[in-house]
Amino acid sequence: MTIMTEKGRKDFCIECRRETEYLLQRKDIVKNIRDKDYTFGITVAVCADCGEEMSIPGLIDKNVQEIDEQYRAAEGIVSIDDIERLMKIYKIGKAPLSLALGFGEVTIPRYLEGQVPSKEYSDIIKAALSSPAYMKQKLMENRKKLTNAAYRKAFAAAESIERLFSVSDKMLRVIAYIFEKLEEVTPLMLQKLLYFVQGVYSALYGKPIFEEDCSAWVHGPVYPEVYDLFRDFKYNPIDDARFALLEGKEDALTKDEKRVTDLVVNTFGMYSGKVLEKITHNEDPWMEARKGYGDSIPSSEILPKARIMNYYILMNQKYSIDTENGLRTYIYDMLDKAS
């Protein structure tokens, strides 16, 4: 059991026959649902004096929520939060969303009240949540069931998001993986990490990981499509409902792609965007692009993939950047050069 102390909190213990302090503990229980046994971790209150379980207000509701969340996770069923994000992303109400997805009109309202979706319906909701193209398809299929206003609003939102997420799937997958690994990523930091992933991967495997071209902007290498994507997020991307479109994409990365991204995250990812900018400003690819321009380097100036790869091949020969220690040595030398 995991013990979570709640000092100063008291309730009536039927064993001690008086008010006592209690501790919150994690307890595993086995519950049979649809002829299948599941082990759930639930919260129980234990008397600090006698050690017996106590019934405190709100605990039953908490247990129901815990079991529901763990059951959905075990079976890959969407959560209520997922459905609410779907409504927010596509600017559509619960009844219209039901009809748009091909369900009965009251299906989504029932799910929002706690009814657990079937795996089939859950997969449809997940597909709509992860793909604006799929949502557009469902909207067109069920066009006659919706009012003109609901259809136009949701379809426009889907088209807008489809344009917004115009970067390659590989780029989205690496972005999702970076966000999963790091608690906080600024737009400047993200740009530099993607550039380093491109450089290290191409040096180790002889080909670029991203199809997108990197541009030489004043603040270092930038992927314009990614800049446009996150410029539209007005808050922390993870807090934006549209961030749900990235969730799970990292699972499609290959072992080699995850390995390189881990190398970059565990080394370059320890520094701020401004520090990473200093490193890129002292690398040959960006310095080559800057020649003849100085600080007025145009945003249209491309950093050729071959130039990035050739530079990092040389760095691999010198530092062994296929290891974290090698990358850290490279970073220290580049920062020393920048100081």
Could you please describe the fold and organization of this structure?
There is one protein chain. By secondary structure, this protein is α+β, with helices and mostly antiparallel strands. It is built from 15 helices and 7 strands. The chain has 3 domains: 73 residues, Ubiquitin-like (UB roll) (Roll); 85 residues, no CATH class; 170 residues, no CATH class. Strands 1-2-3-4 form a 4-stranded antiparallel β-sheet, covered by helices on one side. The chain has a 3-stranded antiparallel β-sheet with strand order 6-5-7. Helix 8 crosses helix 11. It starts with a strand and ends with a helix. The N terminus is likely disordered.
Computed Rg: 26 Å
Could you give the order of strands across the largest sheet? 1-2-3-4
Query: Which descriptor suits the 3D outline?
Result: globular
Distance between the termini: 51 Å
Strand composition percent:
5-15%
What kind of oligomer do you see?
single chain
Q: What pattern of helices and strands is seen along the backbone? A: EEEEHHHHHHHHHEEHHHHEHH
**Mean pLDDT, all residues:** 87
Sheet bearing the most strands, described?
4 strands, antiparallel
- Helical stretch tally: 15
In total, the number of domains comes to 3
Structural class: alpha+beta
**Fraction in helix:** 40-55%
Please give the number of β-strands.
7
